[in-house]
Write a structure and sequence with these properties.
- The protein is an alpha+beta fold.
- It folds into 2 domains: 2-95, no CATH class; 103-174, Arc Repressor Mutant, subunit A.
- The chain contains 6 helices and 6 strands.
- Strands 1-2-3-4 form a 4-stranded antiparallel β-sheet, with no helix packed on it. A two-stranded antiparallel ribbon has the order 5-6.
- A hairpin with an 8-residue loop joins strand 2 (63-71) and strand 3.
- Helix 3 (109-117) packs across helix 4 (124-131) and helix 3 crosses helix 5 (135-147).
- The two termini are 39 Å apart.
């Protein structure tokens, strides 16, 4: 653990020196989060803690989403929907121009049933009871709904709510 911290400290210091000498913007790739809901990064937190901006690139069944997780001196920009396009023998990341829709309109199976059973402000136990199915199936569907950011839990009250807003849908997500 001490080695990770000291290595991260050296990386941050070296980046600072490069930036001072060259005036360049420094971009580092870091580990993906342990938990997509809390976004706590793997490895040392020193690198994201010292960064001016932190972005997460997520791949959900081929749909890419670039989300700003931290912006030191400005307002965070809205997430950007991206896609991989084949150009000759390469893959290119470019803007995803597909129409925006709420992903809940594309849910099928148990995820759709679990989502439909949610009344804003429900406790977990109430929601599970309203769903009426097996707890393990509910948990699996809930994990998918959280990954798609269709539901959120208020950390102070532990109540559950559907997330409002516009979202990008891809064909793979329609099969959920």
């Amino acid at each position: 653990m001490k080695t990770r911290r000291s290595t991260a400290r050296c990386v941050v210091a070296a980046c600072g020196r490069i930036q001072q000498v060259t005036g360049a913007a420094i971009i580092l790739g870091h580990h993906t989060p342990w938990d997509p809901n809390t976004q706590r990064p793997k490895g040392s937190s020193k690198i994201p803690d010292c960064a001016d901006a932190v972005y997460l690139l997520e791949n959900m069944d081929g749909a890419l989403k670039l989300t700003c997780q931290k912006m030191r001196d400005a307002e965070r920009p809205a997430p950007i929907a991206l896609k991989l396009s084949k150009v000759d023998a390469a893959l290119v990341v470019d803007a995803d121009t597909r129409p925006k829709a709420h992903p809940s309109t594309q849910l099928t199976g148990e995820a759709a049933k679990v989502y439909a059973a949610l009344t804003p402000g429900m406790r977990y136990s109430e929601w599970l009871k309203a769903y009426g199915g097996k707890a393990k199936t509910f948990e699996t569907a809930l994990a998918r709904l959280r990954l798609l950011r269709l539901v959120k839990q208020d950390p102070e009250t532990d109540l559950w709510y559907p997330v409002q807003g516009e979202f990008e849908i891809d064909e793979a997500q329609q099969a959920i």
